[in-house]
Write a structure and sequence with these properties.
The structure is a homodimer. Chain A is α/β, with parallel strands linked by helices and about 500 residues long. In chain A, about 45% of the residues lie in helices and about 15% in strands. In chain A, the strands form 4 sheets. In chain A, strands 9-8-11-10-12-13-14 form a 7-stranded mixed beta sheet, with helices on both faces. In chain A, strands 2-1-5-6-7 form a 5-stranded parallel beta sheet, with helices on both faces. In chain A, helix 5 packs across helix 10 and helix 12 runs antiparallel to helix 13. Chain A starts with a helix and ends with a helix. Chains A and B meet through helix 2, helix 5, helix 8, helix 10 and helix 11 of A and helix 2, helix 5, helix 8, helix 10 and helix 11 of B.
Chain lengths: ~500, ~500
């Protein structure tokens, strides 16, 4: 375990980095990566390598890897394919440990390129050098403030790591994540995987203390046996969420022309990853929805969901979504019923979902909070889906369309400024979550999404993720529960 | 047909509305509805009915329905359940045509309530009066600037109509819609449907010139035969998108306690609605994603999708999504290949998806535009999914995190301000869409979502909808294509 950490330490925490292919021209990939490393706030030594220039982007440039003040732990190569082999030979001479080859034009385009790739690997193997790529976008390691992606993406820092055989899809995932408040720890664009494969990185991330959740976009697997044994081991340590591309003929064809790999049969893959305890994502957004849940939530002890808020038909939607995802919506215990009878209006649903009826619509969330606590106290309930109000941002938007006189009148009412009450509600729910430590996820009524609703950001920052739909809320809880089962059965 | 229009005209375009239950207190539902009608800009006569007050919210109040200056075309009742029957009797005497009963406490809570409901229907039937509700939230008719929902929601105006047995779910849908730029024409919260059922409104909306797409949230159907025959007829005239609640035991139980209806068997419903040409939504967001597609796009002639942009693995994701949804990703014709060989870089994918490789990353979208046009020209391609750049908003966000000196440097490069080029690209794509009239949908690379990207709003305003994921982009096109088949087979 510690071996793996030591092995990859100088890749993810390099003291010195050399970038080959940076120049004065901003249209060069090397320049973009150098720029990104500077912009991202990297604190180590950074050496542009260029035979013609003495200074690039304010940094001293060096003619070759032998002239740099210290040896580079990581070399990033961004030159045309035909020049790569010579540079790899230079890296070997300079006893470089890690090389990320951004350059494309190898195995993904032709047999000739594939052979070129093999020559490069040969040099690397002989010299104890590990290669990432070629045909990749670079990497991110938030711990080291290292942002070396050719698209200059600087995602929010956090505890979710990404391995992607497609740099673009990995970037999409990182962007989605940032928008959902989910930060990235390491992001490795693994490209053609001539040397280091996705499973090598999974093996490292499994023991990496800076990674809580591993996510991967996989188009093709080069060594199926090793991939499965590594991921099964990793899944016992932390959640591994996989998005598989090329699961259909059309997708496999597209993947073939993209990374030169042949996508495996969808069914075999599906059954193998589920046996290995991996969590399968349906698409790029689902992957982040799942990562958010695994990053923020405790694992549930069973499959029983308590549902509240649940104004009107939202309880129906959430119940359907739970059932479809294999979760249970159990009856309430007599004790819970009695507790709720004491606080809720006479015609409340008297069952799970706990529909608090019109209560709370005026900004008094006492009944909602009490319903949440009763469900959390109930030993028969393992987790909660709460339909939460975002009324203030709804009315703020409505007010923009009113004439000012009417808007003033509305301001004098309960609907005028529910913001403080909604924030108070959020604080109380966070308090309850901490007290009972059961997973709670929210979906919203009122204004959808998180735009402008402070209490929603507060909830997410305090481990109560909000989902856009009843389906996604139920789906992530089901995956949490399945993973919990896997851990119990594979101790 | 015109009969239906005439029959419901005074409900959706009332000259006068009376609200019973409005008072000086803002905590009353009647006051909220009255307020909302004023705020929404309703131009007709508005009569608060109240025995104690002479003026409410600046309007003259009247003691009863007989005292108003003109007869109300629509009466909205928001008083406690026990007072409703007497008011219905008063409505009958005043020869009112339409009454929306917001009040709850009827069939949804008890047998006694159910009997009360039946008494009310009896009075209505005898007097040619039509009832909406009880236990509903009100209605919206954008044509009449009529916004009479108890939650004071004023959705954006547009051509999508909503019928919802749950006012909350209907409101959720309307909110999602507004956020997606989709406007609402009519929104009917149909509640317990004691008298008027969802299918009565579907029948009207089918011939309503202000409705292009019909959407409905259905928990239970009271008259299955009529529902199916009406919706089948409606589906031949315009798309009818259905979200069904209560399709599982847990959901049906929740629906039972909510609207007093018993949810039908999911399988029977599923097969019936597909035979009737209806489009089934998976959840509240899917419904709006579908409504957006049907509102904005022409129907495709076949199932063949052209994919471009498709940087790296995004082409794999989109291809998989197309296949999974029953669409085809056909090979390119020799002619198209030749055309593309002339413009794309040497190592482009030479197949569909048309991966334009790194082209465009510097803000020159000539190759992307040309690839789109070649696919539109190809007779073998029925519709397009384009992976579109939203790089400018991505870099704008990155720049916020840089020190100003670096940000200045970036500004001088192609990455500094791609906004104008992205807008120019959008204009050209819109031009192509108009020229070829094939459906085009987009997914984004760069910053996800529509936040801050002007060219994305421009595309959507010009009938090129953008979806969050490859899955949704493919799904809506597949539903479009299936509906097109239904129309051909049911002429």
């Amino acid at each position: 375990m510690t071996d793996k950490l030591a092995e990859f330490n100088s890749l993810f925490n390099p003291q010195s980095i050399a970038v080959i292919g940076a120049s004065k021209s901003f249209s060069k990939t090397g320049t973009a990566i150098l720029f990104s490393i500077i912009a991202g706030g990297y604190k180590g030594n950074l050496y542009p390598i260029n035979r013609k220039e003495t200074s690039i982007l304010g940094l001293t440039a060096y003619p070759d890897l032998f002239s740099t003040p210290s040896k580079a732990d990581l070399v990033i190569i961004c030159v045309r394919a035909e020049f790569v082999q010579a540079i790899i030979a230079e890296c070997a001479k300079a006893a470089i440990g890690f090389v990320s080859i951004i350059s494309s034009g190898f195995g993904e385009i032709s047999l000739k390129g594939k052979k070129e790739e093999e020559k490069i690997i040969k040099i690397a193997r002989k010299n104890n050098m590990r290669l990432i790529g070629p045909n990749c976008m670079g990497l991110t390691s938030s711990e080291a403030s290292l942002h070396a992606l050719m698209n200059m993406l600087i995602p929010k820092a956090g505890d979710v790591s990404i391995i992607s055989q497609s740099g673009t899809v990995g970037s999409l995932i990182a962007c989605y994540g940032s928008e959902q408040g989910i930060g990235i720890s390491r992001f490795i664009s693994s490209g053609n995987e001539a040397d280091l494969h996705a499973e090598d990185f999974i093996e490292y991330l499994a023991v990496d203390p800076k990674t809580k959740v591993i996510t991967a976009f996989i188009e093709g697997i080069k060594n199926g046996k090793r991939f499965l044994s590594v991921t099964k081991e990793a899944a016992r340590l932390k959640p591994v969420i996989i998005l598989k591309g090329g699961t259909t003929m059309a997708g496999a064809r597209a993947a073939g022309s993209h990374t030169g790999s042949i996508a495996g049969s969808a069914e075999i893959f599906e059954s193998a990853i589920s046996q290995a305890g991996m969590i399968r994502a349906l698409d790029e957004k689902d992957l982040i929805d799942l990562a958010k849940a695994f990053s923020l939530l405790a694992l549930p002890k069973g499959k029983n969901v308590g549902i509240t808020g649940a104004w009107g038909g939202t309880g129906v939607l959430v119940s359907d979504a739970c059932s479809k995802n294999g979760l249970q919506v159990p009856d309430l215990t007599k004790e819970s019923l009695e507790k709720l009878d004491k606080v809720l209006p006479p015609f409340w649903s008297r069952s799970n979902p706990v529909d608090i009826t019109g209560a709370g619509l005026d900004g008094d969330f006492f009944m909602l909070i009490r319903a949440i606590e009763v469900l959390l106290e109930d030993d028969n309930i393992d987790m909660l889906i709460c339909v939460l109000p975002a009324f203030d941002s709804l009315y703020s938007k409505v007010k923009l369309r009113m004439d000012p006189e009417l808007s003033d009148q509305l301001n004098k009412t309960a609907y005028g400024s529910m913001g403080p009450q909604e924030m108070e509600m959020a604080k109380q729910i966070v308090g309850l979550r901490k007290k009972y430590n059961k997973p709670i996820v929210g979906i919203l009524v009122g204004l959808h999404g998180q735009k402008g609703a402070e209490h929603i950001s507060f909830l997410e920052e305090n481990s109560i993720p909000i989902y856009e739909t009843s389906s996604q809320a139920a789906r992530v809880l089901a995956k949490l529960s399945n993973y919990s089962d896997f851990l119990v059965n594979n101790q």
